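Lab notebook page, bench 4
Experiment: in silico fold of construct C2
Operator: M.H.
Input chain length: 171 residues
Purpose: comparison with the prior construct
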Amino acid sequence: MFSTLSTSILPSLPARYPGKVQFLFRQQIQPWHPSSTLVHEAATAVLRLAPNKFWEYSKALFEHQKEFFDVNVVKEGRNETYKRLAKLAEQVGVREGEVFGLLEIAEKAGNDGALNVGNKVTDDVKLMVKANRLTGVHVTPTVLFNGVVENSISSSFTAQQWEEWLDKNVK
């Protein structure tokens, strides 16, 4: 769905439906894939550092997704995975060190003795998760239209199906 939307549908929306469609993209962590959290945190770090590179980085993540599947991260520490994700960000023009600086987990307790200190994008991720929960989003992909979950749209929607659906529903 990401590829279809980003290459075939989103670029044509303003001309095809001027002033009628606003597209919002929210990341949705898949908690049954623990590395999903790390990938989404990396995308959040890129979004914070270079918003204009978010889509390009997201595309790179989709192209390299298997490198971050469970069996490919199980034997490395969390910060090691973050380093690989930061290196991928460098490939799209976002400084690796800055990305890793937002992602790195400290190896010591916080000043108050806290052990679950998170990283510098933890609060951003918490807001995304809360927003998704409030709108009934629990899995990906989930499409909302006018704020309501639209179950007729599936991850396998082709560009033609998207165009037909939009033509039928955008007034």
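Observations: The chain is about 50% helix and 0% strand. Residues 132 and 138 are 7 Å apart (CA to CA).
Next step: discuss at group meeting.
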